[in-house]
Every structure is written in C-alpha cells, then in structure tokens.
C-alpha cells in the first residue's frame, strides 16, 4: 500500500511567535507578558499561546508560578487572579489563555523577574493521536483566510515578545521587568480563553479521512441489507405512526425494501429458491416479512398514501 501523505496544518503559533515554540506531548506553546515592563502596583497579563498538534481532544491545565521574592528579597509581592486554569483544546485548535497578574506597589523595581507557567497535558481520546503539525512547525498560514476579528487578535499578539524557554519538566518561562509605580487608571483584566483557529477554518480532507478511517472500517461491513432491513422496517412503521398514518404490514415492507435496494437480495425479482414469487404469485416461505408483501402483491392499493 502507498504511504499515507503526511498532514501539516497551518502553523499559527509560529506565525505569531516568529518560530518560537515548546513541544509538550501533542501541544505546542509559548508564553509572553503584556506589557513586558509593568509598573509596580498595576495589573499585567500573562499570555499563554497553545496549539494542538494532534487530531484528538486535549485538556491543558495551566499552573501559574510567580516570583516568591522581589529584588529586595521581600515576599508576597506578586499575585495571580487565578493560579490554576483548565483549557479544553479541540483537534488542531489554536488559541491563547489570558492570565491576569498583579504586583504590590511596594515591589522592588528591577529586571530579570521570571514568570513560569507549568502545563499538564491530558489526552482525552483513547485512540492513538495522529500528528497534524510537525514538531518544528506547521504548514503555510494565510492570515486573510480568517475572520477579521481573528486577524486583529493575531496582529496584537504579534506585537508581543514570546518565549519558549523550558522550565523544569513541563513548564514554560518568560522574563519580565518591574518599573517604579505610576499614577493612572488601573485596567480591569479577566482570565479568558480565546480560540483563534479550528478545523472548521481549514477543512483538509486528509485529516477527516484519517480520523474516520478506523470507525468506518468497523461500521461499513455492518451495512448489509440482511442486517439493516428489520431495524429499518421497525423505524419506518414507527415514523409513519408518529405522523398519523399507521402503515399496514405490506406497505411497511414495500417501503423498507425500496430503502434497501429492492432489486437486491430482499427483492422479489429473483426467482431463487426460498426467495421471490412463485408461479401462482405467492411467496415461498421465508421470502418476505410474515408473507405481508405477498398479500400486498395480490391486493395492491389503488391509491397512494398522502
């Protein structure tokens, strides 16, 4: 058999970060701080960019680790609105998590502060994931194919400085600077997940085929007339009855045979033994549903149901 063509979906993360990325299992990530230099006592934002490189659902838990001490060795100078958040990534989805942070007005100004976000990646599907983006980057990204709102968000993200520095076993780190306090209006920031791209924005038949290959291989062999006829017959009777028209057995048999290709095994065009109509126009045993179709063949209705 020929080898399956490798799938490499658009690399939004690389287009935003300039190529910076950290691979953690099937998720690619990068971290930024907005603004990168924040005045003491004012809120700022951690922006965690996530890109699912697989064709399965993935849960990502983000745990914020702020500096324990400031440059003056004072404790409890940095705070997170929410230290732990969970994001559910759909297959191949790309988006970012906004994490509001703040510092005390008494925090010592300085450079070299380090924010760490530890990530826990959990695969939600039992099936083995297929990679739809390569570890070093995905395919070509055409920004104009997205909605205008998504384009504007991507442009804003491209103005940030993203880091892919690994911290520990499963964390990503970014440096930031604390400036002296400033007077001004304090912005209100909230934690949120913003989705930038999903498979619906780029329908690649190869991805859909790969995802459906195994379930289709199990399901298609079951779609045989001898398997689906009786469940279909029951469904036809139920639907017509619910619509106010109770079918006779022969009518239901005719409709079900039409839905399962009446010229095939369940039709009466063939004169094989045990199936089909005999010379006298009567069915042999076992050819129809309780011989209902034979009755209908002998007493065909002169009008059609409306």
Task: Explain this structure.
It is a single chain. The chain has 306 residues and is of the alpha+beta class. The protein folds into 2 domains: 12-216, Immunoglobulin-like, CATH 2.60.40.10; 224-298, no CATH class. The chain has helices spanning 12-17, 148-158, 205-219, 225-242, 249-259, 292-298, and strands spanning 22-24, 27-34, 37-39, 43-52, 58-65, 78-80, 84-89, 94-103, 110-123, 165-167, 171-179, 192-197. Strands 1, 2, 4, 6, 8 and 12 form a 6-stranded antiparallel sheet that branches. Strand 1 (22-24) and strand 2 form a beta hairpin. Helix 5 packs across helix 6. The radius of gyration is 32 Å and the shape is elongated.
Task: Domain count, please report it.
Answer: 2
Question: Globular, elongated, flat, extended or rod-shaped: what is the shape?
Answer: elongated
Q: Distance N terminus to C terminus?
A: 52 Å
Main CATH class of the largest domain: Mainly Beta
CATH architecture of the largest domain: Sandwich
Please work out how many helical segments DSSP would assign.
6
CATH topology of the largest domain: Immunoglobulin-like
Strand content: 25-35%
Q: How would you characterize the largest beta sheet? A: 6 strands, antiparallel
The helix content is 10-25%
Number of strands: 12
H/E topology pattern: HEEEEEEEEEHEEEHHHH
What's the mean pLDDT score? Answer: 82
Structural class: alpha+beta
* Rg (C-alpha, Å): 32 Å
- Uncertain runs: 262-306
CATH superfamily of the largest domain: Immunoglobulins
